[in-house]
């Protein structure tokens, strides 16, 4: 029997929202945000030193509500994911 490796699907892209300052950012997951804000041994600097995949880091940045502009500057954010997120922010004429 031949084994066929299963390719995992890509991580989903969080929807974008406009904050009170007009900045486009990913819609934060409130559970993830709470865990990051309240867990004493979990902060962005410590997470940066841990061995996580770029895919997981990209999704985490989205789940904590990163701005789209800031996301595009992250070393682990792929051009393809940034482009997909940016494309999802395009509002059709007359819809806004």
Structural class of the helices, strands and pairings? mainly alpha
Number of helices: 5
Give me the strand/helix succession.
Answer: EEHHHHH
Strand order of the largest sheet: 1-2
Distance between the termini: 55 Å
Average pLDDT, rounded to a whole number, is 87
Query: What is the beta-strand fraction?
Result: 5-15%
Largest sheet: 2 strands, antiparallel
How large is the radius of gyration?
A: 16 Å
Question: Based on DSSP secondary structure assignment, what is the total number of beta strands?
Answer: 2
Which descriptor suits the 3D outline?
globular
Uncertain runs are none
Helical percentage? 40-55%
Q: Secondary-structure blueprint of this entry?
A:
Blueprint lengths: L15 E3 L5 E3 L3 H9 L5 H5 L5 H10 L4 H5 L6 H10 L8
Antiparallel strand pairs: 1-2
List keywords for this structure.
mainly alpha, about 100 residues, 5 helices, two-stranded antiparallel sheet
Overview of this protein structure:
This protein has a domain at 26-88. A hairpin with a 5-residue loop joins β1 and β2. With 96 residues, the chain is mainly alpha-helical. The chain is globular and about 55 Å long. It has helices at residues 30-38, 44-48, 54-63, 68-72, 79-88, and strands spanning 16-18, 24-26. Strands 1-2 form a two-stranded antiparallel sheet. It is 41% helix and 6% strand.
């Amino acid at each position: 029997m031949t084994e066929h490796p299963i390719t995992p699907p890509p991580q989903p892209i969080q929807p974008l929202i406009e904050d009170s300052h007009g900045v486009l950012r990913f819609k934060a997951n409130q559970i993830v945000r709470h865990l990051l804000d309240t867990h004493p041994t979990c902060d962005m600097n410590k997470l940066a030193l841990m061995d996580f995949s770029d895919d997981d880091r990209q999704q985490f940045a989205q789940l904590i509500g990163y701005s789209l502009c800031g996301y595009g500057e992250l070393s682990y954010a792929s051009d393809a994911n940034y482009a997909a997120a940016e494309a999802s922010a395009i509002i059709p004429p007359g819809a806004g």
